Amino acid sequence: MKELQHATTIGKISYTNAWPIYHFFEPAALTYPAELITEVPARLNERIQEGTLDLSAMSSFAYGMASDRLLLLPNISVSSQGEVKSILLFSKEPIDSIGNRTIALTNTSATSVNLLKVIMTKFYEGKPDYITMEPELEHMMENADAALLIGDHAIKASWADHHYFVYDLGELWYQYTGHSMTYAVWAVSRSLADNNGEAVQEIVQAFYNSKTASLRDLAPVVKQAIQQIGGSEAYWYAYFRNLVYDFGENELQGLQLYFRYAHELGLMEHEVQVDLWNENKLIRVTE
């Protein structure tokens, strides 16, 4: 194992949708020392902005907020071309009837919350009141007309017996824009990229290898999902195969549009310049 001043701290999303990226990722097998830290997206976002993580999965919105200090890693993301199946709006009424009602938001991800705000404002011309709550559907619905859940909370709620209207935010985004939507990206601090390019390259390759191995044989990931969350093999195979784990031109265009809308609505303080890392060379992306 090669020497670094400290072990590279790597953030891991606790949600199921990122499991294929991490399933075969072994920090102990890396040449350079590394430590894997598992948190919900909101906490990972905070830690990479605080500087207590060197490289991490993070919500796309949080990356945009801190893009001046970060570089996007190529070829990995959690995206969808249409429905995502785990970012769901549950509503007592049809979505076009809740533009001026109250919507309860999950307290666990900035990307999904702001995607909903873009959708409600841009596509439905609504101005709902938003309240933030713990992600528990029935309690949220006692206090609001609709509720946004993400990740495993959304999946479990979608299996429950209820009479709510259910809207998939990935599907709504695609219907109105024709673009894919990227929910999570992997980013590295510019300082680590500048000073330890070989370590970053090794980590990027290890993530890519894990993704490739997982998608070649989803059985171990599906088995883990059933054991930890429930559901059927058929559900989980369909779920993982539906998601897009690449980050190419399609994903880039959709993400840039999301950032543009967020900035226009005042949700993003500044315009986002997406910079990609590639073998320790900066690739500046222009629209």
Automatic annotation (TrEMBL):
- The EC code for this enzyme is 4.2.1.151
Q: Which Pfam families match?
A: VitK2_biosynth
Query: What keywords were assigned to this record?
Result: Lyase, Menaquinone biosynthesis
Q: Which residues form a coiled coil?
A: none
- Please give the pathway this protein is involved in: Quinol/quinone metabolism; menaquinone biosynthesis
HAMAP family under this entry?
A: MqnA
UniProt name for this protein: Chorismate dehydratase
- Whichever gene encodes this chain, its name is mqnA
